[in-house]
Automatic annotation (TrEMBL), chain A:
One of its GO terms (molecular function) is ATP binding. This is NUBP iron-sulfur cluster assembly factor 1, cytosolic. [4Fe-4S] cluster binds at C208, C211. The gene is NUBP1. Gene3D superfamilies: P-loop containing nucleotide triphosphate hydrolases. Its cofactor is [4Fe-4S] cluster.
From TrEMBL, chain B:
The keyword Repeat does not apply. The gene is NUBPL. Belongs to the Mrp/NBP35 ATP-binding proteins family. This is Iron-sulfur cluster transfer protein NUBPL. It holds the Pfam family ParA. Keywords: 4Fe-4S, ATP-binding, Iron, Iron-sulfur, Metal-binding, Mitochondrion, Nucleotide-binding, Transit peptide.
Amino acid sequence: MFMAQTLGDAFAFAAIEEIKEKMKIVKHKILVLSGKGGVGKSTFSAHLAYGLAKDETKQVALLDIDICGPSIPKIMGIEGEQVHQSGSGWSPVYVEENLCVMSVGFLLSGPDDAVIWRGPKKNGMIKQFLRDVDWGEIDYLIVDTPPGTSDEHLSIVQYLSSSNIDGAVIITTPQEISLQDVRKEINFCHKVKLPIIGVVENMSGFVCPKCKTESQIFPPTTGGAEKMCQNLNISLLGKVPLDPQIGKSCDQGQSFFSEIPESPATSSYRNIIQRIQEYCGLHHSQEKLSNQGME
Amino acid sequence: GSRLLCPLFSSSTNDEFLKEKRAQIMSRGLPKQKPIEGVKQVLVFASGKGGVGKSTTAGKFLFALTSIFIITKAVGLLDADVYGPSIPKMMNLKGNPELSPKNLMRPLKNYGIACMSMGFLVEETAPVVWRGLMVMSAIEKLLRQVDWGQLDYLVIDMPPGTGDVQLSVSQNIPVTGAVIVSTPQDIALLDARKGAEMFRKVHVPVLGLVQNMSVFQCPKCKHETHIFGADGVRDLAKTLGLDVLGDIPLNVNIRETCDAGQPIVISQPQSDMVSLVLCT
């Protein structure tokens, strides 16, 4: 249980029960975190969603709780879409038959519309996303977060506290300046008892398209994510190299899995996604066992 | 009240009166905007998007500032990123600030720049898990309870986003201008746009945009690759009617020295940026 820092926290507890009911039909919940901004969280979240949705029997949902800088609509190519309200709640925007998205980006009137909200208002929005959106029966709910360890992170962990989050995937670049913030994020996860699925090292090396020399654009001066994971006993899910095509695909709202299937980044991603699926499968069966044990 | 007593007043005067009354009520509870004692000008380095190089660019701007003027300028750097303070590492500074006789925190100095950051007040690996309200009061302390002394320029390095910190800073002190840093990617520009809009809403003049990580030159074959796209910032600047204050390439040197907390050689793009920012 959390120590209420504000009166708002106290009222949040009531919402937690409502959200617990809503989340019963969501099998797996994955948070994508980073301490540092600009490391590729949204890119990763979007492509994790695409990757999981490849299996047409699975229903995947992507929730973007970056209220100030919602990148997901652009990356998924659904900028300008609107959210509709029906009797059963808000309808998320469907990218594919089995992949839907919700973001504050759909509620803004234009690209210049800036959301300049203080914490409590942002928390209200997150609560609504969890409680009022008609997600339907979901196999995987992926939550893309803004950088840091603030209101949005506290809120999402708090609101989902009774709903069993599978774990967090933490994204970083090899630089010490990123790792510094990522260590804080890892400590945050420990503090709020959020299991860590593993760390992804993004922008790990660049291959010159002309001479094929590999350069470390963001050099791992302190051993990169590999050393950090060793020291903290956390899984390194994989390393993704820098490919200029990735940024381009995201800007154009297309999955780079389909745009550049031969890129080494694509195969790194696929391996990482598989490991996450395995983790979730294991987590699910462990849960089942513990539930059976309680009966 | 006055409407009934003075029906001879025109409706426009009534509107004025109502407007003023409304403004008065709305500003109750908001901090009073007051300049920091001794600080002549405040520049804010922001972006909206994370990881575009705000801290790095702010640091470089100040390095250049302290070396290109014949009469040295007194400069300060305030790290307003409470959750992910990068300035201590970048400036190779560590340790708790001392207190002055007036009980103000003394900024830590390196390379002639007086620095203050949340990073000096908490352990390196300790996360700051705070809600907005606490962040607001922390920012106020970092602004007002620091013994800045006499500064020509105070540069505030903002965190990503358009939330509590940005609001607190612009409501608390008069800001001379904002520099928005972005990479050429559309995704970053989306947020840069929102950043510019935010400053407009809180009446802070935007001095211009800086394009960072514009191009990478292969150290072996010198082939140039635009990893994060090209010219995006120039196009946005045109759309918003803003100046491009600088165009900084991806340089391995920058990141290595950033991690090691060393100053880097003053390059042409840096000095250009300084003259453009100061002349605006």
